Amino acid sequence: MTNVLYDALFLPHKNNPSLFLDSDDASSLPYADFIKRAAQIAHALVDVGVLPGDRVLVQAPKTSDTVALYAATVQLGAIYLPLNNAYTLEEVSYFVRDAQPSVMVCDPKNQHELTPLAKEQRATLLTLGHEEGTLQTAANTKPRAFEPVECGPDSLAALLYTSGTTGRSKGAMLTHKNLLSNAQVLTQLWQMSEHDRLLHALPIFHTHGLFVALNTSLIAGATVRLMEKFDIDAIQNELPQSTVLMGVPTFYTRLLASPGFTKTLTSNMRLFVSGSAPLLADTHVTFYERTGHRILERYGMTETNMITSNPYDGKRVAGTVGYALPGTEVNITNSETGNTLPAGEIGSIEVRGDHVFQGYWNMPEKTAEELRENGFFITGDLGVLDSDGRLSIVGRSKDLIISGGYNIYPKEIEDVLNEIEGINESAVFGVPHSDFGESVVAAIVPSVPDLDLDKVREMIGQKLARFKQPQHYALMEALPRNTMGKVQKTVLRAGYDGAAEA
Ligand code: MCA
Ligand code: AMP
User: Fold this and answer.
1) Cβ neighbours around 184 below 10 Å, total
2) DSSP character string of 259-321
3) CB 3.0–4.6 Å: which of 241, 410, 492, 497 could bond 428 by disulfide?
4) What are 5's strand-pairing partners?
5) Ligand 2, closest atom to CA 396?
6) Would you kindly state where each structural domain of the chain is located, as residue ranges?
7) Rounded to an integer, what distance in angstroms lies between the CA atom of residue 307 and that of residue 327?
8) Distances (CA, A) of 367 to 173, 304, 359
């Protein structure tokens, strides 16, 4: 039986005694044992009725069992749907209602809160914790082998939600082929091998930590040092025993800010990768001066997986995201006409290749807007190619804030603010932030003279994950608008100096 992704990522390790997951609790899991654990979890999912094509929604801590749950879902032909642990009940409710999973797997501490939602959707609610959970207990007694379910290249493997400019999150449908082709290309390009030990400090509910880091390590047979989160001291302790780190720019600015981060600590490392947000050229240069390593910056999206990468062997240029990956076409177009622009001209970045998703779950109109019939996906990023084919990102046509590698769509926050009594209208924008790259500011036009901002914060807190909540509020009499009536966020950004903070 063929299961495209399982056969390439997991099956080769059936009898591999090498260490795969080296976790925070000092537990370690060889590849062969991991494969057995995934099989047990697959049996436990089948027992609660999960069928091929079903969505398995997961909002669980970062543990080896969570990674095994991903493998199990792929193995039984179901669709893995991971969610940020920071999402509130309100946010999770949207994803559940949209994706209609047959099973929801949550942290035991959220079981009580999620029970009514699971009941409403007739989904089975299972728990997965650091120590134990109902899924783990059920899996413990199951057989340690499971026959993979047939899945071709176009079968869906994952549904990853990405926020949208309309305020509604969209589920990007990713197939076995999409995930596998990208992982194969990256493994080869970055020369990942069984000798690598990857420092894994990213969350595993996004493309970067889940697919880029884990899938490439799996293909290579590398060891993954699975750390619950990015902790500067823990990272520094691990660097001398590791070879690869994949992170967002905040990882690198934090390392540089640490007096204990020295060249000696990095002497065993062969690769530092950065992505998910722009890496400042200054960070690239300072990192090189401190360590002798040039951070390899690459560019990607949830919908497309990775698109470009600086070379492994060739010149890594600060402030650029490198060349289109093998099998990837990057086209720079005029955003009005869609016509291709020559090298040197700034335009809309479009991308085509085996790694580009199939469209948005239940949103054919949105899919048609962003995925052209000729297969090119309109990224919403603005860029320029040089004569050599090297891409630089110069901005975004989409209204998006990237904070610490998390995408935040202003519209989603504005919608929540505008619902609050006493707020006439609002505009949310990003301002530079030394740690997160950008942070969220909300300009508010109150409809009452004594708007209680503490109350506003409290109401926002009930609805939106912490990382999306505005760090500052600026009260204004009116929002700046152009002649078309459109709010001018560039004016807001330029005029914001923190002084107007309420
Ligand atoms: C945490 N907080 C944040 C963020 N993270 N606030 C704004 N932006 C953030 N990114 C808040 C928490 O709510 C908390 O607030 C306080 O900061 C401390 O929380 P803590 O968990 O301790 O934060 P941290 O460990 O310092 O986390 C910062 C981080 C983390 C390491 C930058 O956010 C992170 O791992 N980011 C990576 C995101 C990622 O994987 N992106 C890839 C997306 P309070 O104290 O007030 O309660 S995939 C993608 O973009 C594409 C495909 C691509 O190209 O990769
Ligand atoms: P997401 O929707 O979370 O997949 O985020 C994708 C977005 O992150 C892209 O459209 C870019 O705007 C941004 N991004 C990813 N990598 C980079 C990078 N190396 N430089 C600048 N922006 C990036």
Assistant:
1) 18
2) TT--TGGGTT--EEEE-SSPPPHHHHHHHHHHHSPPPEEEEEETTTEEEEE--SSSPPPTT--
3) 410
4) none
5) 12
6) 4-152, 401-495
7) 10
8) 10, 13, 5
CA of 348 to the centre of ligand 2 (A): 14
Ligand 2 binding residues, C-beta < 6 A: 162, 207, 275-278, 297, 299-302, 321, 379-381, 393, 396, 402, 407
Q: Could you report the per-residue pLDDT of 352-372, keeping only the tens digit for each?
A: 999 999 999 999 999 999 999
Overall CATH class of domain 401-495: alpha beta
- Rounded to the nearest angstrom, the distance between the alpha carbon of 321 and the centre of ligand 2 is 10
- Pocket-testing residue among 396, 407, 408, 468, ligand 2, by greatest number of atoms within 8 A of Cβ: 407
Our separate counts of H helices and E strands in the chain read 16, 24
The percent of residues above 90 in pLDDT, for the chain, comes to 94
pLDDT per residue as tens digits for the range 264-322: 999 999 999 999 999 999 999 999 999 999 999 999 999 999 999 999 999 999 999 99
**DSSP code for 142:** S
Q: Record the pTM.
A: 0.96
Looking at per-residue pLDDT, the higher value among 484 and 179 belongs to 179
- The phi, psi pair for 390, rounded to 5°, reads -85, 135
304 CB within 6 A, ligand 1: no
**Of 253, 273, 250, 272, the residue nearest 261 (C-alpha):** 253
- CA distance linking residue 37 with residue 68, whole number of Å: 6
Residue 398 has pLDDT above 70, yes or no: yes
Q: Which atom of ligand 2 is nearest to the CA of 407?
A: 3
